Amino acid sequence: MKKPSLFFLIAFLLLLFMPNNLWAHGVVYEVKEGKTVIIKIAYDDGEPMSYAEVKIFSPHESELEYQNGRTDKNGCFSFVPEQIGEWRVVINDGMGHGVATKINVAEAMEIEANHKGWPRWQKLITGISIIWGLTGLILYFKVRKRRS
After folding, report:
1. Where are the domains of the chain?
2. How much is the pTM?
């Protein structure tokens, strides 16, 4: 009987010990710009993230919450910033999905959204590239070991 290859052993171990939240679907959000910050958050399949916990942190007090609450049934939450600077917003649905983003409030108290996040296709390509690269590295050292 043939021994299982090193590749399949590593792939099995990666799948076995992979954190559960990596299997979850993604989250998309939108920040409407103006005098009031309105955040609309949904899963990447379009379903709104209803009643998710929201925490707002002011620019000058990063540990103490400026405001907290929950999104409505449509996944919307709004707040009015009272000072300029970079506001931190953390949204969590309690099941491992969430967003942590920063919103810049300029001198004229206008909102500048800072969207950071990768689309699902980009995450998929990155994951496949990492697996492909690791496989190539393993095979390189395996062939090098046989030649010496």
Report:
1. 25-117, 118-148
2. 0.57
Distance CA 108, CA 133 (A): 48
Closest CA to 25 of 78, 86, 95, 74: 95
Q: Retrieve residue 18's tokens.
A: 């992979």
For 76-130, write each residue's pLDDT tens digit: 998 888 888 889 999 999 888 888 888 888 776 655 555 556 667 777 788 888 8
**Angle (deg, nearest 10), helices 6-17 and 120-147:** 140
CATH topology of domain 25-117: Immunoglobulin-like (2.60.40)
Report the C-alpha gap between 27 and 112 in whole angstroms: 20
Length of the chain: 148
